[in-house]
Amino acid sequence: MELSMNIYKILDDLGISYKNFQHPAVFNCEQAHLLALDIDGAATKNLFIKNKKGNRHFLIIMVDDKTIDFKRLSQILDVSSLSFASSNRLDKYLGTSAGSVSLLDIIKETQGAVELIIDKSIFNYSSIQCHPFTNTATLEIPTMGIQQLLEHYQRPYTEIEL
């Protein structure tokens, strides 16, 4: 995993526009809402989960006001029961910590050990809110820019209805 990645340089080099909002550290969606920042786009909930055996890992990206039904999701993904992965696994696979997880972290995972799952409704928005490898900022990135970034890093994803 390349820990020296600079997400701003990556986005600039790829010509992907973004707006940067600096703010105090937030550790969950509720804290982010309390900041009342004027950011457009889909506010996202980013969940790092694993199957029961711990041999499959998933980064789930969904609109933050949705709730997840782990039983239904495990049926969709055809895996035995799902649970949140530990902070050690989060660091090992995505090089990040709880509260800082975002869609952007998937580009740091180069072994293909984490499956990216995106709720279809995300693509109804013109832009997406993402932490830039830290929970002290939020980037607003056009949805097409996110798709360009994933394509550049050859990161496939599965769209599902959550």
CATH superfamily: YbaK/aminoacyl-tRNA synthetase-associated domain
Number of domains: 1
Uncertain stretches: none
CATH topology name, in short, is YbaK protein
* Helix vs. strand class: alpha/beta
- Spatially, the strands of the biggest sheet line up as 4-2-3-5-8
Average pLDDT taken over every residue: 88
Helix/strand order, N-terminal first: HEHEEHEHEEEHE
End-to-end CA span: 30 Å
> Main beta sheet, described?
5 strands, mixed
- The CATH C-level name is Alpha Beta
Q: Quick one: overall form?
A: globular
Number of helices: 5
Number of strands: 8
- Rg over alpha carbons: 15 Å
CATH architecture: Alpha-Beta Complex
Strand content: 25-35%
Q: Percentage of helical residues? A: 10-25%
Lay out the secondary structure.
Layout: H1 7-13, E1 19-22, H2 29-35, E2 44-51, E3 57-63, H3 70-77, E4 82-84, H4 87-94, E5 114-119, E6 127-130, E7 137-142, H5 143-152, E8 157-160
Parallel strand pairs: 3-5, 5-8
Antiparallel strand pairs: 1-7, 2-3, 2-4, 6-7
Could you please describe the fold and organization of this structure?
It comes from Photobacterium phosphoreum. InterPro entries: ProX/PRXD1, YbaK/aa-tRNA-synt-asso_dom_sf, YbaK/aa-tRNA-synth-assoc-dom. With about 160 residues, this protein is an alpha/beta fold. It has one domain (about 5-160): Alpha-Beta Complex (YbaK protein), CATH 3.90.960.10. The chain has 5 helices and 8 strands. The chain has helices at about 5-15, 30-35, 70-75, 85-95, 145-150; strands at about 20, 45-50, 55-65, 80-85, 115-120, 125-130, 135-140, 155-160. It has a 5-stranded mixed β-sheet. The radius of gyration is 15 Å and the shape is globular. The chain starts with 6 loop residues before the first helix and ends with a strand.
